[in-house]
Automatic annotation (TrEMBL):
Recorded family membership: Belongs to the peptidase M28 family.
GO BP term, pick one: proteolysis
Pfam families: Peptidase_M28
Species: Schizothecium vesticola
InterPro entries: M28_QC, Peptidase_M28, QC/QCL
TM ranges: none
Lineage of the species this protein comes from: Eukaryota, Fungi, Dikarya, Ascomycota, Pezizomycotina
Tagged with keyword Acyltransferase: yes
Protein EC: 3.4.-.-
Name the record gives this protein: Peptide hydrolase
Signal sequence annotation: 1-22
Domain Peptidase M28 per the UniProt entry, residue ranges: 120-346
Keywords: Acyltransferase, Hydrolase, Metal-binding, Protease, Signal, Transferase, Zinc
Amino acid sequence: MFTPIPTLLIALLTLLPRPALSYTTLSPSSLSRIPSGGSDFDPTTGALLAPLLIPRVPGTPGSAAARRHFVDFFASRLPRWTVATHNSTATTPATGATLVSFTNVILRRDPPWAAPGDVARLTLVAHYDTLYRPEGFVGAVDSAASCALLMHVARSVDAALTRRWEAIGEGDGLGGEEVGVQILLLDGEEAWESWTEEDSLYGSRALAEEWDIVRHEGVSVFETPLKAISLFVLLDLLGAADPSVSSYFENTHWAYQKLSRAERRLREQGLLESKPKTGRFLPDEERHSFSRGYVLDDHVPFLQRGVDVLHVIPTPFPAVWHTMEDDGAHLDVPTLRDWARIMTVFVAEWMDLGDYLEPAPGDGQEEYRERDEL
Ligand SMILES: [Zn+2]
């Protein structure tokens, strides 16, 4: 059936933000350029991970040391990322009337020419706090490993982002939606006594509430920072051997499929180290039916406000979960490095970096581009 499109509608359509989001599949040679993090994920000596394997209870010196680790890394190694903190306070059932402070760390890279309210941000999230009890708990899979992994992802795409943005300049000059990336390292995910709506998710609840209220200045594509989140990718409980991560949300199954495909292609090219008993970390690439259940975690306050969520958490949880065994010695480093590769591919594809990654030694300039417009 042919329906004439009124001229007014065409005029309105041209005023809408241009569709800036394209997800470009990496070529086989680009996949082989994806770094693994190497010894940086060593639990005792690794530059990214080892400093985090201490108790990080909110409001304690360990928590401050973890934050310093993040901030120093970005300030010294990745100075193009903006670093901000978001603070809130709350009482907890374990600490009585004393207010505990919770500090989220926000790391962001937007196109250099873009106004903050015009950037749709791929948002990568993990929590860095640890359980109040048992005393001395260091939370390696919960979630130091995920924090280290996100630092690695930022480092791995940083130069390519610079090259891409220098190459494309200010796009077509019409303004509209731009694409950026941000990392949220959240505080206060854990319950202090037992999980309730009030005793959990202290940092993410405060941040989601604030980002729902504050308005971008002037005329902007996105009214609030919350609306500027294109996808909320939450990593949790990663780093143990043999993980199996399901697709929990039908509306973001397409993103899960991209992540699962990244794993499959890396495995097919022999670029992953682990041999999981589960076969795949992300087995649901072809899945078509969904259960209603999902795991309560930092995404909930965002999900409740309409943000699209991809939750990368294994079920069942690792056997060491919430025990003193959740330490560096119980991590499976090859699994962690494989997650680092898979997530880096996902982010590089999202940010359309295929042409801008560092060539591996002896790498040919292979032309292979397959573009999925969203
Ligand atoms: Zn936990």
